[in-house]
Design brief:
heterodimer, A: about 475 residues, mainly alpha, 24 helices, B: mainly alpha, three-stranded antiparallel sheet, 23 helices, 4 strands, about 5% strand
Chain lengths: ~475, ~425
């Protein structure tokens, strides 16, 4: 026991490790000892593992802590449940991200166990796994198999708030990218997440296209339940424009398209065309499969509430089969709000009574019953910030709505600040861009091409019997040539 | 009473065929009007007036019948007769002149046979050279035919052909009226009002134009040119291209009301301008080329008047707008709403204080919003491009089965895949640059 404790406390050493090389050497050595301890313990760990956890610091001795915790949690919980779980939570919220890079698979296994829901109650599980994911990769830009497990757990148990900070991140890296370079030292904190998160480091399992699609679909649906239509729209759009080849299209993509159409109505007030870079076969499939949805969408932007209502009613079985009943209800209830919002394109001031006459509810297909109802509706819209305007009362008692300009003029300083903010965000893309550029620039195919190209350039200087004809063709081929290797 | 009933019956039928019906008495005098034209267009115009104008119906149809009988086209006679049979069953013209039909048909058949025989002979003798020499004449003839067939694209194509032959300046000048006139008519029917207006304004020499009266009269040139210019040009352009146009002035003298309307518009007296045009509505509706497009032309002019009227104000009472533009007792509001919705009029209605308020465009705010929007889009696009590259690199694309849908399909999709990746790569490069 004492010996085991000594091993556990041996890292990090008291004197600071000044550079990555020293750190790497020390932790590798420590890792060997820990492995030996776990593989061949003098006394089974389950007996005194608890004590070890009590005496080590999850934030300071993270690697050792993880090793002990892992043996107590996986495959089955050993030791006093309450005690181990408290330690587990403490660890997941506080571990040192540098140390645990050396035990990715152990951490992943623990996270998987937590996501399975057997250890912690769902609300807590979502909270700690979200925190852990962002500790492993603070940029949140790398997709892992854990992401999908977490999203499933959060959506199915309706614990959405704690996971938002993960699903709101822009994911740009995916496991299994060709020509990913192996890191010299995992402890290098400047590494891109795409380098140290890898199936070889254990932080993720290999993923399939469906995993990525499913994750985005779950994200979209979670944003829907938060009524954040903008973000839901972006998430669904990522799915329906997912890169395809050989005329590919999947069921999830078609499902996402249907939801995307409805969410466009909610976030933009009208149907918008699908992005140009959508796979052509997929676009064709959407056209056929999404027909009832497009019909609803085409009516949303008109003043014909009754027709919209009957169109929605007509295909109610379809919405049910596609599990879009809830979204469709949102669409119907949002219709009148958009009608009112659109009035500001024509009117600057308009009485409540006139608004009531000019806009209809798509839920009933008729105008609202009283001026009070419409006033309440507008009141709510103003409060929820979806409409910029004020309600006022005339001397003769007429209540009317004054629309306010949607954008206010920023001062020069404010504008500069806004622009600077965007510049910072763009700057933040730089490491991502650099990583991608490096990876592509050092790929075998690209280098082959480069060499060929240089050779050709050298040849060219000699007398060319074809008068440069061939090189001309190849110049053109350069664009296509890269393609064929992709 | 007995004579009005058949006319009523006739126009009920016309209405059911969704024809245009003009109840008001036009200012034109039928005999004088038709004397302006020669050739086949006379009959077309008469028949149109007969089918559209209630007051002139029978007179026009009778004239159409006699016009048809002057020619050899039996079908035209039958068309006119079909109308007069219903509109004026008691008139002698409503009796079908079968003797004339038989004789004319017989003569036509013989003539056709003769011409075909001649054509064959010419073809055999290969006298192409002499055909080529008359390319302009042939083009003109062709245009006359396609014009009657209302095949507007072919009109434009043939005008093009006419111009390709090397012509001296003199010749060009001689052909200009014809060429501009038919181009203008074709553009009018293609609803390219601005182009058409320019064509009519450039017709040129009135004495030559007079010779084109088998298509349109000089009066028509003035009317078409003036109306279309009003519908499509702004005030300064109207001044320079219409009023200060010395060659077009000759035409305007024929239709002084058009000249008056244009100068009213230029001087900002919009309601007076509209009043003049409105008083001639019946005449315009009885014109063979204007009839189908008059509602669009009038509404364009009206919209322009309203927009122009409103330009100097930041805010106008709806009452004064109504006074200037609405018919007595009616409100302009719904028309204004349509104009604002379609983006013609940049204004908002204030129904509380009964005002039309100009949209004050804050260029600064707009620029700022645009700038921020652009930056945001740039970021989003950059992320999306990198994401797509990395999905491709991780071999995570959704793949189709090549065997699946059939060979045609798979070859298409194979191609698009290449296109797709290429686009991504080139995008990647461009974002790098």
């Amino acid at each position: 026991m004492d010996q085991a404790l000594a091993t556990c406390l041996a890292f990090p050493p008291e004197e600071p490790l000044n550079d990555d090389v020293a750190y790497d050497q020390a932790i590798q050595a420590h890792l060997l000892k820990l492995t030996k301890l776990l593989k061949d313990p003098p006394v089974p760990l389950s007996q005194y593992g608890g004590q070890l956890l009590e005496l080590t610091d999850p934030e300071y001795n993270s690697l050792s802590y993880l090793a002990v915790l892992h043996s107590l949690c996986v495959p089955n919980l050993a030791g006093p449940r309450e005690f181990v779980l408290v330690k587990l939570v403490k660890f997941l919220l506080g571990f040192d991200p540098r140390q645990i890079r050396y035990a990715g698979s152990h951490l992943s296994e623990i996270l998987t166990a937590v996501c399975n829901g057997s250890l912690l109650p769902p609300a807590a599980a979502v909270e700690v796994v979200s925190a852990a994911i962002l500790k492993i990769d603070p940029t949140g830009s790398m997709f892992t198999s854990t992401h999908l497990q977490l999203a499933k757990l959060a959506y199915n148990t309706n614990n959405i708030d704690p996971v938002l900070k993960v699903v709101e991140k822009n994911i740009v890296f995916y496991p299994g990218m060709a020509n990913s370079k192996r890191p010299a030292m995992l402890c290098d904190m400047t590494l891109s997440p795409s380098v140290y998160i890898h199936k070889d480091t254990g932080f993720t399992n290999p993923v399939k296209a469906t995993s990525v699609l499913e994750y985005d679909l779950l994200s979209g649906m979670m944003f829907c339940s938060k009524r954040d239509w903008e973000k839901a729209h972006a998430a669904f759009e990522r799915i329906l424009t997912f890169p395809t080849r050989d005329g590919g299209c999947s069921k999830i993509m078609a499902e996402a398209y249907k939801k995307w159409v409805l969410v466009s109505l909610l976030s933009k007030g009208k149907a918008i065309p699908i992005p140009q870079y959508t796979g052509p076969a997929a676009a064709k499939a959407y056209q056929i499969l999404g027909k009832p949805y497009k019909e609803v969408a085409s009516l949303f932007d008109t003043t014909n509430a009754e027709e919209l209502r009957s169109e929605v009613e007509k295909s109610s079985q379809i919405w049910q089969d596609d599990q879009n009943v809830g979204l469709m209800k949102e669409v119907l209830s949002a219709y009148q709000e958009w009608q009112i919002k659109n009035l500001q394109k024509v009117f600057s001031k308009i009485s409540i009574a006139e608004i009531r006459q000019q806009t209809k509810s798509a839920q009933t297909g008729t105008i609202l019953n009283s001026d009070d109802d419409i006033e309440a509706l507008i009141h709510n819209m103003i409060i929820s910030n979806s409409l910029k305007g004020v309600l006022e009362k005339n001397d003769d008692g007429t209540v009317f709505l004054t629309f306010l300009p949607s954008s206010t003029v920023l001062s020069e300083a404010e504008y500069a600040q806004e622009l600077a903010k965007t510049a910072v965000q763009l700057k933040a893309l730089e490491p991502i861009f650099k990583t991608t550029n490096e990876r592509l620039g050092t790929s075998r195919e690209y280098i082959k091409h480069l060499i060929k190209d240089q050779k050709r350039a050298a040849d060219k200087s000699e007398l060319d019997p074809t008068m440069g004809f061939e090189s001309h063709v190849d110049d053109e081929d350069l664009m296509g040539g890269v393609t064929s290797t992709a | 009473m007995a004579s009005t009933d058949p006319i009523l019956h006739f126009f009920t039928i016309m209405e059911s065929q969704s024809g245009v019906i003009v109840k008001e008495t036009p200012k034109l005098d039928l005999d004088l009007y038709i004397a302006n034209y020669r050739g086949r267009t006379c009959f077309d115009r008469l028949l149109l007036i007969g089918r559209s104008s209630v007051p002139l119906c029978v007179d026009a149809l009778k004239a159409a019948i006699s016009e048809a009988k002057k020619g050899k086209d039996v079908q035209r006679y039958r068309d006119a007769w079909e109308c007069i049979r219903i509109a004026a069953p008691n008139d002698p013209e409503s009796q079908l002149d079968t003797a004339w039909i038989d004789n004319t048909e017989k003569a036509n058949k013989m003539e056709t046979a003769r011409l075909e025989a001649e054509l064959k002979q010419y073809k055999n003798n290969l006298v192409k050279e002499s055909i080529r020499a008359h390319i302009v004449g042939i083009a003109k003839h062709l245009i006359g035919i396609v014009l009657q067939r209302r095949d507007w694209p072919s009109v434009l194509a043939n005008v093009g052909k006419m111009l390709t032959g090397g012509m001296s300046d003199e010749e060009q000048k001689a052909h200009q009226p014809f060429q501009k006139l038919v181009t203008g008519i074709a553009n009018l029917h293609s609803e390219k009002f601005y182009e058409a207006a320019k064509n009519f304004l450039e017709v040129g020499d009135p004495s030559i134009c007079q010779g084109c009266n088998d298509i349109a009269s000089s009066n028509d040139v003035a009317t078409y040119g003036g109306l279309l210019a009003l519908a499509s040009m702004d005030r300064s352009e109207l001044q320079s291209r219409v009023l200060d146009n010395s060659s077009f002035r000759n035409y305007l003298e024929l239709e002084p009301h058009i000249r008056k309307a244009v100068s009213m518009f230029v001087n900002g007296r919009y309601s007076a301008c509209l009043d003049i045009l409105e008083s001639y509505r019946a005449d315009y509706l009885l014109d063979i080329h204007l009839q189908p497009h008059l509602p669009a032309i009038f509404s364009a002019i009206r919209n322009k008047c309203i927009v122009q009227y409103f330009i100097p104000f930041s805010c106008v009472t709806l009452e004064s707008m109504n006074k200037s533009f609405a018919k007595p007792g009616e409100s302009l509001e719904s028309e204004l709403i349509t104009m604002i919705r379609s983006g013609v009029l940049r204004a908002r209605i204030n129904t509380i204080d009964k005002l039309l308020v100009a949209v004050s465009t804050d260029d600064r705010a707009e620029m700022q919003a645009k700038g921020l929007e652009m930056a945001k889009n740039y970021e989003r696009e950059a992320i999306e491009r990198i994401r797509r590259m990395n999905i491709a690199a991780a071999d995570l694309e959704v793949k189709g089965t090549r065997k699946g849908v059939g060979n045609a399909m798979s070859s298409i999709s194979g191609e698009t895949w290449f296109d797709d990746t290429r686009r991504q790569l080139s995008q990647g490069e461009s974002s790098a640059g």
